[in-house]
Amino acid sequence: MKQALQLRMGQQLAMTAQLQQSIRLLQLSTMDLQLEIQNALESNMMLELAEEESESSVNFEANIQLTLEEIELPISEISVNEIEPDIPQELALDCDWEDIYQEALSQTMHEFDPEFDTEPTRQQSLTDYLLEQLLLIHLSERDQTIALAIIDAINSDGYLTQPLMNLYQDLTPQFPDLDLEEVTTILHMIQSFEPNGVAALDLKDCLKIQLLQLPESTPYRQSALE
Prior knowledge:
Largest sheet: none
Order of helices and strands: HHHHHHHHHHHH
Mean pLDDT: 74
Strand content: under 5%
Helix content: 40-55%
Number of helices: 12
Number of strands: 0
Structural class: mainly alpha
Low-confidence stretches: 53-58, 71-85
Distance between the termini: 73 Å
């Protein structure tokens, strides 16, 4: 049998007869307290009810006073169970005390902390995804501007929304010496991004891009391209 160390936490309070009687009287309702007083008067001939008390209702704070001096409860005897999460009294043989304590503490924080739960993450758009991949490539300022213009022209389905010639003409005022082949090269670079087939002109072009990204040894690849 596997031996394990068991750690138990508990509390102990010495209940005096006076404290027990005081606690019991505090728990009584007005009717029950009056009945208790009446029974005490009938059972003990030495007791008598004061005239003032018979004409007015019973005042709990005037007749039953519990002070710290009367209770004499040391601070060291106050249980820590009131401020700590529930922890099992006995540990399983195959677990550690730290694991049980950490799990209980996490559940308590999750229950009482309204900000514990994380907010749902916003779904990333295709444009953001392409821009993240673009940042991983070291391009000149000129090539980066061309790439941004191409990405901006890609819709949510991944297709290029305008012909490449239109993009070239829009970039010419900014770069008078720009060549169409230069724009085409940047376009092919973006078409190598994920998801496969992005920045295509149409469905035929999208399938062609995906086929070209397959290894040349892929069966029927050439036939599909043709």
